[in-house]
């Protein structure tokens, strides 16, 4: 029902792709949202609330044309460390090149 493309990454994605049993009870679920355009903050907050109700820890990365950032950090602080090809950039606007 989400208006964006998303998928499983990390150890769960690795286990699904290889059938190698690398998961354990403490494993988290890493998810990636592909976001070539800015996404509505309220929808991202709904996503975060839904993932927080799951029985395991969930980490969501949002992938933009500029780089990727942790959704929880951006929702909590209003800014995020975007991992770019040129290095990390702290910004309140992850879809732009504006830095703090």
Would you mind describing this structure in some detail?
- There is one protein chain.
- The chain has helices at residues 10-18, 41-52, 71-77; strands at residues 5-9, 29-34, 58-63, 68-70, 80-84, 87-91.
- It has 100 residues and is of the alpha+beta class.
- Strands 1-2-3-4 form a four-stranded mixed beta sheet. Strands 5-6 form a two-stranded antiparallel sheet.
- Strand 3 (58-63) and strand 4 form a beta hairpin.
- The N and C termini lie far apart (34 Å).
- The model has no long low-confidence stretch (mean pLDDT 92).
Task: State the total count of DSSP E strands.
Answer: 6
- What is the averaged pLDDT score? 92
Identify the overall geometry.
Answer: globular
Residue windows where pLDDT falls under 50 for at least 5 positions: none
Helix-strand sequence: EHEHEEHEE
Estimate percent helicity: 25-40%
Query: What is the C-alpha radius of gyration, as a whole number of Å?
Result: 14 Å
N→C terminal distance: 34 Å
Largest sheet: 4 strands, mixed
Number of helices: 3
Strand content: 25-35%
Side-by-side strand order of the widest sheet: 1-2-3-4
Main structural class: alpha+beta
């Amino acid at each position: 029902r989400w208006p964006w493309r998303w998928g499983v990454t990390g150890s769960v994605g690795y286990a699904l792709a290889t059938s190698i049993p690398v998961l354990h009870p403490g494993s988290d679920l890493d998810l990636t949202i592909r976001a070539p355009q800015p996404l509505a903050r309220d929808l991202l907050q709904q996503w975060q609330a839904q993932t927080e109700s799951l029985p395991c820890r969930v980490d969501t990365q949002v992938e933009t044309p500029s780089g990727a950032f942790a959704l929880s950090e951006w929702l909590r602080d209003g800014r995020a460390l975007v991992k770019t090809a040129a290095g990390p950039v702290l910004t309140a606007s992850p879809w732009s090149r504006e830095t703090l």
